[in-house]
Design a protein that fits this description.
By secondary structure, this protein is mainly beta. The chain has a seven-stranded antiparallel β-sheet with strand order 9-10-11-12-13-14-15, with no helix packed on it. The chain is elongated. The chain starts with a strand and ends with a strand. The relative contact order is 0.09.
Length: about 400
């Protein structure tokens, strides 16, 4: 054993065996004095100057230690479980809404005109399907239940108009006249329209599973435009002898004393809403909304043709302009001013759909954004929209 004056590198702990060593040969850091350390001879260990060695430190001096890292805080099982449940809930909601949007189908009924011929047309997610058998025809209302798609409209055969119901594309002619609205409930199919007799008188008519029931008086001059079923009650909106009329289970209720029309009925809870129009002086029309028989004038609406209620919100579509009325405020859907109109409104979740026309094109608006359904060589109009909810 031999004691030798040494220096030590403060960075890598390398040692030099004499005081003449100023800088560490390994890392170039200036050496500092170190306590006398016992080394073995080169012949015994092979350790040389500038080679790291393990120093024998005095009892009063300890070797440098790395900084201590605080242990992670403990999380209770309750908090950990809550975090996991929250993450799973978020993932489940994302999957749920993705599946809803994936499975949700939007149906629009309307008409396309090519040349001098009109075709009843059903658009599913924007893809058109013609329903007529080559006859002039129009599709006016669509209702979807499960895998079955019902469309009400009319066909011109020869010189006569026939009220027609298409189920999954197959037509059923209900009688002379026109079919304006279809609703399916409890396995029963209801169609509202007008039936024409041999004397060319028109009667407000409700077909249930193909069987007609005349609603208006024997004098004729009536028509049914909309049907809605709530529980055991069947509501029909239309006109009889010049007055806007609501029928409940076949019993009529006149909504006004003016020349007026009732175009649409919707039931929400215990409240019954009817949209229509009144004819004022000089043939001026104004949109109307009746709630449980009480009238409200819609100053920004000329012709209220469709009503839909979602929660506390009441939506009304204007047939004389592309406008949507919501809780008293009108929103214009198009910057055009001529040859346009909204025919139907439907609300699904947070999305509001409106079917109508702009210029020569059948158009569907979703949350105010338009989608042209027809165009090119065809002229079209979208008359009804229905969103099929996932089962």
């Amino acid at each position: 054993m031999a004691d030798a004056p040494v220096k030590v590198c403060p960075k890598c702990n390398a040692y030099g065996q004499n005081d003449s060593v100023r800088f560490c040969k390994k890392c170039g850091v200036e050496m500092v004095d170190a306590p006398r350390i016992a080394y073995k001879e080169r012949s015994e260990t092979g350790v040389r100057a500038g080679t790291p060695a393990t120093p024998i430190m005095p009892a009063t001096q300890s070797a440098a230690r790395p900084p201590e890292i605080a242990p992670p805080k403990k999380i209770s099982l309750f908090k950990a479980g809550a975090v996991i449940v929250s993450l799973l809930l978020c993932v489940s909601l994302v999957i749920f809404f993705v599946l809803i949007n994936k499975n949700q189908d939007v149906y629009v009924a309307g008409v396309e005109i090519i040349g001098a011929k009109s075709f009843a047309t059903l658009w599913k997610n924007g893809a058109p399907q013609r329903l007529g058998d080559g006859n002039d025809s129009a599709a006016k209302s669509v209702y979807v239940l499960g895998d079955d798609v019902y469309v009400a409209g009319d066909e011109i055969i020869g010189a006569k108009s026939f009220a027609t119901l298409w189920k999954n594309g197959k037509p059923q002619r209900l009688g002379n006249g026109e079919a304006n609205s279809v609703y399916v409930s409890g396995g029963d199919v209801y169609v509202a329209g007008r039936e024409t007799d041999a004397k060319n008188r028109s009667f407000a008519t409700l077909w249930k599973n193909g069987k007609p029931q005349r609603l208006s008086a024997a004098s004729g001059n009536g028509g049914a435009n909309s049907v809605f079923v709530s529980g055991d009650d069947v509501y029909v909106a239309g006109m009889m002898d010049g007055a806007a009329t609501l029928w409940k289970n076949g019993k009529p209720q006149r909504l006004n004393a003016y020349d007026a029309y009732a175009y649409s009925v919707f039931v929400s809870g215990n409240d019954v809403y009817v949209a229509g129009a009144e004819i004022r002086e000089s043939a001026y029309t104004i949109g109307m909304l009746w709630k449980n028989g009480a009238a409200q004038s819609l100053d920004d609406i000329w012709k209220a043709v469709s009503v839909y209620v979602s929660g506390d919100d009441v939506y009304v579509a204007d047939g004389n302009s592309a406008a949507l009325w919501k809780n008293g405020a009108a929103q214009r859907l198009s910057g055009e001013h001529f040859n346009l109109g909204a025919s139907s409104v439907y609300v699904s979740g947070n999305d509001v759909y409106v079917a109508g026309r702009v210029g020569k094109a059948a158009t569907l608006w979703k949350n105010g954004k338009p989608q042209r359904l027809s165009g090119g060589i065809s002229v079209g109009a979208a008359m009804s929209v229905f969103v099929n909810q996932p089962s």
